[in-house]
Amino acid sequence: MKFPKRKLFLLIIFAYVAFSLYAAYNVFFSTKVISRVHRIEKKEAGPSAAPFVGDEWNPWEDEQVEYNSALNKKREAFKQHMARIDKNKPKRYKVQIWGKAAIGLYLWEHILEGPLNPTDKIAQWREGELQSNKIDFSFYTGPAVVQGHVPLDMNSLVLVLNGREQQKVAYSTRWLEHVRALVQSHTVSHVAVVLLGDEHCNNDWIGPYLKRYGGFVDLLFLVYDSPWVNDRDVFQWPLGVATYRQFPMVKPNAEMITSNRPYLCNFLGTVYKNSSRETLVRVLKQSDLEKECITTAREKWLPQETADSLKHYQTALAQSELTLCPVGVNTECYRIYEACSYGSVPVVEDVLTPRTCAAGPSSPLRLLKAAGAPFIFITDWQELPAILEKERAMSQEQKVDRRRRLLEWYATFRQQMKERFTEVIEENFFKSG
User: Fold this and answer.
1) How many CA atoms lie within 13 A of 118 on its CB side?
2) Domain spans of the chain?
3) Which residues lie in coiled coils (predicted)?
4) Which of the residues 90, 266, 342, 399 has an alpha carbon 20 to 30 A from that of 132?
5) pLDDT for 341-376, tens place per residue?
């Protein structure tokens, strides 16, 4: 029996349309599609066990689990590696310095060699940062640095103060009381003080603030040969140059070392009544040395220099082989360090001044002597003519070599003070940290 081709064709068309409609229904209207490929039957012991159908099945699920596990292990290993790096990395500490005395500029610029912004010396607010060993130092100075307005973001503090006269002591005391309040409120944990002490070494006013007497000051760096110095909590500190008179940080150069200096010596300073300075001036006149030495004597001390007087003083240092350093109220004076800055050898009157400064075989100037200062030490200015006679006999080569050694010594001395200051603070502030 023949099946008409037309009917066969229509039957095929009908089947195709029916299948298409069924497929479209499943795609667009069915809420769940279960294929044989995605059906998972959970076989159970009893005959009434119903098949378990999973919503999704990932054929790479096991591989994904292994990959995630391996990735987590790598991440954990990386974390442990970074933790070991942090543990082995040298720990750094932060210390803030408040410069409330001009000697703070000698500490920051000359000893620590830190930058200051702005560079204008008469700016109301100046600040800087530097790293020394494991410590990150920050420094603030200027008239606008007042109590309660310094951004204190660390708990270790160095306060630079002036205790040379009663008015300065009163000002310094107010700052110490402010810091005491910070310690009591647990804002500050460690305190050191750099103090320009009394020239007679009478510094009893600061004693109650020291931790050894029940106070809060851990460390004291003290100028002059004080009997308090024990290298445990009280350390001697150099006087330095007169930054309060705008004496600059001098950078040595070849001309400073090799130039032919026209003068044997210089002395520019105040001549006090009944002092050895009167003897010095008399010796210069009697020996007709005023032509070979630059001398400017005044009867009254002036706290500030004019631009002209400062330039004249610096010129005298730069053009003289020797700088004469008679004692004043104390043996240690700014002139010693200023002469070193220009390679002019200090001729120091090695005489201990009266009052309460420490006496001993190495006093006065025990800090400089311990550092091997290449100075000329005398006990009487009557020795000066013989010293200058030796100067005249020296060759230019010998003088150049001596200048170089003096400048190298002074640079080394400042570096040693920097290392000592940093190490003492690190040891006492952070040893247990």
Assistant:
1) 6
2) 93-237, 249-416
3) none
4) 342
5) 999 999 999 999 888 898 888 899 999 999 999 999
